[in-house]
Amino acid sequence: MAHLKLTNIKKSYGSVKVLHDINLDIRSGEFVVFVGPSGCGKSTLLRVIAGLEDITGGTFQIDGQVVNALTPKARGVAMVFQSYALYPHMTVYDNMAFGLRLDKGSSSSEVDRRVREAAAILQIEPYLDRLPKALSGGQRQRVAIGRAITRDPKVFLFDEPLSNLDAALRVATRIEIARLHERMADTTMIYVTHDQVEAMTLADRIVVLNSGHVEQVGSPMELYNDPDNLFVARFIGSPSMNILPARIEAAGAETAVVPEGGRRIVVPVPTPSGSSSSAAHLGVRPESLELVDEGQGLFTGRVTLVESLGEVTLVYIDIGRGDEPLVAKLPGEVRLARDSTVSLSVDVSALRLFDGSGRALRGDRAREPELMRNAG
Amino acid sequence: MPTVIKQTGFYLLVAFIVLFSVFPFYYAILTSLKSGTALFQVDYLPTHFDFGNYADLFATGVFPKNILNSVIVATVVVVISLFLAVTAAYALSRITFRGRTLLLLTILGVSMFPQIAVLAGLFEMIRAAGLYNTLFSLMFAYMIFTLPFTVWVLTTFMRDLPVEIEEAAIVDGAAPLTIVLKVFLPLMWPALVTTGLLAFIAAWNEFLFALTFVSNNETRTVPVAIALLSGASEQEIPWGTIMAASVIVTVPLIVLVLIFQRKIISGLTAGGVKG
Q1: Cα(A325)–Cα(A373) distance, rounded to whole angstroms?
Q2: Complex ipTM
């Protein structure tokens, strides 16, 4: 049981501000993923939570207790590092027992029981007597996870744990971490990654960070379906959402917009009446575009590139916006000749509208139902 | 150029280097096995096997004591300098504090003074502390040149140890001393062995301080004892005994290097972090 509450957390190195007023409320047993581009402060935030970095300002509470000045151990956190960070001179068993043995209170039989229990969960029992250098990358990462499990932490932190593994192992370990979360239902888990597949599949809630600010917090589907701003809209989803500069023609209960390179369309999003002829952005997910008869759709343009991935085909279409083609993700294999002209249409409910400053225009539109949120 | 010539040239060069570095020691061994007038014949191959010189050395009584003194001084110097250097290296490599670079440069600067420059001042300090004519004076004085390089080498080495390993230990709840002793020390064997050996050799061979701070035959260390070995008369320099003594004091160093050479290997951190 650990409820984490971050209030106005700031972190700076000298005059360089890395985190600006981070406010987060992480429920007990929740799996929260921090995502963001390199240098957005996600790892720093994790290290602040771990207690490896001092907090410059604000308060951090675990279960109501202010823990700003407590050591990682006193906070009850355990951490899995990107580079595994195993003790090279100790066997797997000793690596996992190291933290426990530092506790004067725990007897050696208790240590032994917990190490073997963790080893059984992670299926690393056959390697208990080996040194880390005799293990493969995936096995080392399991040991690192095992070392964290034995401590029975209140808060489990992962710092990009899969980024050193190859693709197949990454998927396998990801599934294992998801299982681990189910097994340790009371343990709050925080996971840092730049891989949005990991974020979408593992998270109860995702925290999107950008240059030290929280851009949006929400369930994976909330972020995908209803991004708060252009940054989140572009960051979540692959290939990322097509963002087209647009002009609002008629505001009201529904909004008529003209996107650059496209035709006028009425979007079921209310806008304040004063916003007619103001600048906006129209967001279209590549996967919501579909081919229609020529001249019928919202966009018409010339195919510049076709990428066939088997299950989907990515089509890049020049709609007269220079270097920024419109990307469409069409199901299955689609045969299109380069330089041929295609028309694309979209269900208006899949369109997202952002104002000139990049904030989502929603009006009273009800949020999409939270399909993915676990009962946490 | 044909490979044969290249290879021959290579091995000739190796042979020359080996000959150049080993010959003085080889000649010392040859001389130590001679006695009487044979000492003054130049031989390049062993012709005499007379261990009389060695027997003489141990018969006089003081020389074994001198060896013991050297062992004590060198060992204590190595142990204390390694302990101080490891703890200092942790602070200098892992803790950011004001004046860290200045401190490191000062440590390095101290080691640049020639021994003769600090001799007078050091002598006063040792007299004032009442250490004159004791082994403690030498232990204290030798730290002056062993500490700078042990601190420097270990600081550099510790700086290269992955930070994540230390952080993992912090998260595991280890205090700084536990981290140093249980995590860093085992990883630092190669550096410890290398610097320890160098410190030992430096302390073992030191002459100037040993000559100045100790005036008593019983308390001398071997380099001074060898230099002050005297023959039957004023005019005679006992080359045979001097060479025998030199061989005896070199053997422990060679044995130490042979024992620890297995430890002087790199790659001990392999497997801890990715790489």
Answers
A1: 34
A2: 0.83
